[in-house]
Design a protein that fits this description.
Blueprint (H helix, E strand, L loop, with lengths): L18 H13 L2 E9 L12 E8 L4 E7 L5 E6 L5 E5 L9 E6 L4 E9 L6 E9 L6 E2 L12
Antiparallel strand pairs: 1-8, 2-7, 2-9, 3-6, 3-8, 4-5, 4-7
Length: about 160
């Protein structure tokens, strides 16, 4: 079965870190609907929220009704995940999933079709370090990428 939508590609701020990971990403895309997986780094010079937390943006196109699984982990800092809807409103945010220590695992059903953004950030200002992010869903995304901007700090759940 073919899909007219293109496979995802990462922004320069978030790329699969090795040739093996890129191969595994391609296999995931063909076997499991779709999955975006890779490693990134929050570092001085990255975009910052108004409250001082560095962040990276990863965007993907989703279809209304799709269930999206997001996992974010780091051994360097306390991760904080924010999912923005196509209108840049906070759809879901997560800090410290029970049983995962400081890491996050979230399952979200997309309410509308469009371009969604995952903000990878920290729970406290000025935290830096490497992280791993996986976003997986049932349908194939039309595009993925990202460009930093400066959103206000999302509210805490």
């Amino acid at each position: 079965m073919s899909d007219s939508r293109a496979c995802p590609s990462w922004s320069s701020a978030f790329t699969p870190s090795s040739p093996l990971l890129r191969i595994l990403l391609a296999v995931s895309l063909s076997l499991a609907g779709w999955a975006l997986a890779g490693a990134g780094v929050l570092a001085p010079g990255d975009a910052q929220l108004a409250s001082g937390e560095y962040y990276d943006r990863v965007t993907f196109d989703g279809v209304a009704g799709d269930e999206v699984h997001i996992e974010l982990a780091s051994t360097a800092f306390d991760v904080y995940l924010v999912l923005l809807d196509p209108n840049d409103r906070v759809l879901h945010e997560e800090d410290d999933t029970p049983g995962l220590g400081l890491d996050v695992r979230a399952v979200v059903r997309l309410p509308v079709s469009g371009s969604y953004t995952v903000l990878v950030t920290s729970a406290r200002p000025n935290e830096t370090g490497a992280y791993r992010l996986t976003v997986a869903g049932a349908g194939a995304p039309a595009a993925a990428g990202g460009s930093p901007s400066s959103p206000a700090r999302p509210g805490r759940a």
